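Quick one: structure tokens for this chain, please?
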Amino acid sequence: MTKNIHHMFHDCEKLTSIDLSNFSFGKIKDMDYLFNGCKNLEKIIWPNDGNYILVESISYMFNKCKKLTSIDLSNFSFNNTLQFNYLFSNCSNLAK
């Protein structure tokens, strides 16, 4: 059974950092808007297992994360990801 976690932290304006290192993304299919509107989010710690194989959609995932300066997605596998729309939209401090 696949799961959706879209909008999980949507508009969590007081969220500044989050440690997801113990979270399993193995059955997640939809991560749209996951951190959308988290304007004070500065740091995200992702699991190192790289188990994101079912993820198909990550649109608007970091939209409006204005304090996010960098993000490490090196463990992500985007082989099945079809939707990337506005992934980093309005991330004004994200390094290029």
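The chain has no helices and four strands.
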